[in-house]
Amino acid sequence: MSDLTPQSETPTPTTDKITQAARETIYLCNFRVSVDGEWLCLRELNDISLTPDPELDHEDPKDPIAIERLNLMNMAKLSIKGLIESALNLGRTLDSDYAPLQQFFVVMEHCLKHGLKSKKTFLGQNKSFWGPLELVEKLTPEAGEITASVKDLPGLRTPLGRGRAWLRLALMQKKLSDYMKTIINRKDLLSEFYEPNALMMEEEGAVIAGLLVGLNVIDANLCMKGEDLDSQVGVIDFSMYLKDGGHSSKSAEGDGQITAILDQKNYVEELNRHLSASVNNLQAKVDALEKSNTKLTEELAVANNRIITLQEDVERVKEETSFQQESRKASSADGQVLGETRKQLKEETQLRLDVERELEVQIGMKQEMELSMKMLEKDICEKQDALVELRQQLEDLRAINQQLSHKSQSADASSKQKSEAIARLEEKISQMSGTVKQLENSDKDLVKQARTLSAAAGKLLQQQ
Most buried of 8, 261, 364, 463, CB within 10 angstroms? Predict the structure, then answer.
């Protein structure tokens, strides 16, 4: 730090700001980001041995693109883990001003921007991750609601702002992991937007999509009206993740247990959600079958009434025919009346044949409707049995979920104790830093006194 200290005794405010900025700047081009336990560690590339890393045995350790992908994946791990832990400790719905949530969106933005192809427009080259996110609507129809909401939001003028709004809506819907897995599995479509060595085209993208499943335990309520998403500066705040690497193995073991419990809880909640969706689908099918059954019953009653009416018409035609035959015998002398009677008899006979044909058709339809009713009743019985089994499984899963919640509460209590110990250690560190600053100030005072004494001695020597 000596080369960054200004040489003048009374530095101006400008030099102070430049010095402070230089001290706080981290140049990732000369450092490699890795995860040591649960904290972020930076190592200079010159200090890294040329032996391949076990995690990157398939990649060139000198490849800067591979190092960038690894750095972004590690940052995503830390931001997701920190967001989940802080949200569970907070115990309430997160809003837009929550710092870990803002950093998570910044890290996701950097991951989605990695390896984007430049599109030339009349204003110059443009890189935006809104294009790949629009693919989700084509691959998953239920994502169309998010895309429509983003397009309807007032104040969004750039594709970058629309992409940021899409990420926030997907997180609130708890579908961000599903949507990311959907587009990562279609690399043939992503190749239009990304370079072959981009993060979304490699296995690091699939790892990040799997890590996003843990965010389903978080409830977020983000208000995007009035928020300027177009002009926000997406800068990662590394101070939230740079910690002292000397943490105990007990804390790592406790955090591993918490992570395992959270993974189990996430899995049970996802399974519970899928089962609830299947139960709702089955219930909708049962309702539709009941409606169709009622409709068929009504149609069957109408057909029965029609058949009874037709049978009465046939009986009436028979009576009229017998009456006309008797009247024909009685008036056989009148030839003109006989001809008219024969003509009327022929018409009535034709009418009777038509009625009989219609009766046969109605009887066949009645038999088919009875057969379909039997099949529908059998199907309904099977669906009801399946629904009972699913409800039993759902109750079992709820019991497991309650057990896991109890375990999570106990783990939270232990984590609170650890955080209190860490707070006490940080207080001691702050006290020690205060004493060090006091010693530095006293050292500076001694240096100034020495300079004044040397100046006085020089003046005395000159006077002598």
Answer: 261
